[in-house]
Specification:
The protein is an alpha+beta fold and 428 residues long. Helices cover 18% and strands 45% of the residues.
Length: 428
């Protein structure tokens, strides 16, 4: 989908231009190219210490012959940063300040590179008719955690229809999808604005969402979990037991004595030690492995299984509302898209995920769930946003900007609320 969108952007510019020179001019005319990089010191973290058994001769941890020592954990705190670059050709609305040399200092910040997203990039209806596009990549590091996002968008606004192609990858929210929308639209003009209603069909492709490991592969769930761990993760468990009768042969128990009095307390049964694929000790007991190691391994295995399923496809009914009203003292730009009815084209499309959720809520066993290769289902996916501004006085203003996307029960949102006051003088 990403490659398709980039190809469409380039081919569109060529087809609607005149030759290579015309294509270049048509593609970049009125567009904005930006790039930005920010770096900041990381959040301060106090030193960490731990108790360990250290061999005084080698300085290496040795839990059998070492000496108890306080060890300082060495940590490298990496700086936080933001990287952003892209190109956009989306007409500004009246409430957006123009950016450029002529407007620098008058709401313009052309020299900053603009690393944050404009909320109205997600709007269905643009300000002008014709083609508009957006190419954007952002990467961030916070608290030594990295995440990246990218977006490619091509939109065409006609007199009576809307066409939109989009690829979105939100690394922080872990949402990735390709989308195509074709809608009929009806515009109602109002004083100082317009109101649009749109109806059509949307097609989306995305990774498999909404399933649990128990339904993707129920073999580990219905058989011995330790066999599953050995087969899938390459780990090994080795049984050990104590000697309760003192004959030098393990008999399935470990004798327990009071360390102060030496009094015999009893014994516990045998257990297992767990080793990784390289033979390194991971856990001293089954309980330790199952509670502290197995969940993380299972999560990594499950994510790998989901990626192996490939992209899933759905066709959905697409509904939209868009409202734009602007005056010198008040403006509102609000939009929303709703996808209520869906037809899944693949085994792991979200129509089966909805059915699996109902199956799970009813308390039925995972291995009894039946997948449909194709099927219809009702669930509410939506994408809404708004930009609202009030000019209360000549030098006092209030604004709200935000958007909220909820696809396949995976939300992504942001909100900005602000109050601006400009001091115009004190009569000195």
């Amino acid at each position: 989908m990403k490659k398709l969108l980039i190809g469409l952007l380039l081919s569109t510019s060529f087809l609607f231009g005149q030759g290579l020179e015309g294509a270049f001019s048509s593609f970049f005319k009125y567009s904005t190219v930006y790039a930005g990089f920010n770096m900041a010191s990381p959040m301060h973290q106090d030193d960490r210490y731990k108790l360990s058994m250290i061999d005084p001769e080698t300085g290496i941890e040795n839990w059998l012959n070492g000496e108890l020592s306080v060890v300082k954990e060495e940590r490298e705190l990496k700086p936080d940063y933001d990287i952003a670059f892209g190109i956009r050709k989306i007409a500004r609305f009246h409430y957006e300040g123009k950016r450029g040399v002529k407007n620098a200092g008058v709401g313009g910040d052309w020299y900053k590179g603009k690393t944050d997203a404009s909320p109205n990039e997600a709007a269905t209806i643009g300000r002008v008719k014709g083609f508009e596009y957006l190419v954007k990549y952002m990467e961030h590091r916070r608290w030594d955690m990295k995440h990246a996002s990218q977006e490619y968008q091509l939109r065409y606004l006609g007199d009576w229809f809307i066409m939109k192609l989009k690829y979105m990858d939100l690394g922080l929210e872990e949402i990735r999808y390709g989308q195509g929308d074709l809608r009929l639209r009806k515009e109602f003009e109002t004083d100082f604005g317009s109101f649009n209603i749109s109806v059509g069909l949307g097609a989306r492709t995305h990774p498999a969402y909404g399933f649990a490991p128990t339904v993707i592969d129920s073999s580990w769930y219905t058989s011995a979990w330790w066999d599953f761990a050995e087969d899938e993760f390459g780990v090994d468990d080795k049984r050990y037991s104590g000697d309760t009768d003192g004959d030098g042969i393990g008999d399935g128990g470990i004798s327990i004595y009071d360390n102060g009095t030496g009094e015999y307390v009893g014994y516990v049964g045998h257990d297992w030690r767990w080793f990784d694929a390289n033979g390194n000790l991971m856990a001293m007991t089954d309980r330790e492995f199952y509670q502290y190691h197995f969940p993380g391994m299972l999560e990594s295995w499950f994510n790998k299984q989901l990626k192996g399923l490939g992209s899933q496809r759905e066709v959905s009914v697409s509904l939209g509302l868009d409202w734009y009203q602007y005056t010198e003292n008040f403006w509102i730009h609000a939009w929303g898209s709703l996808y209520p009815y869906h037809y899944g084209l693949d085994k792991y499309s979200y129509h089966n995920a909805v059915a699996w959720k109902e199956h799970e809520e009813d308390g039925k066993e995972p291995e009894t769930f039946k997948f449909l290769d194709k099927g219809t289902e009702i669930w509410m996916d939506y994408d809404v946003g708004a930009v609202i501004g009030f000019k209360l006085q000549e030098n006092l203003g209030f604004y709200v900007e935000g958007k909220y996307l909820d696809y396949w029960e995976r939300p992504a949102y942001d909100l900005k609320v602000g109050l601006n006051y400009q001091f115009v003088g004190f009569g000195l």
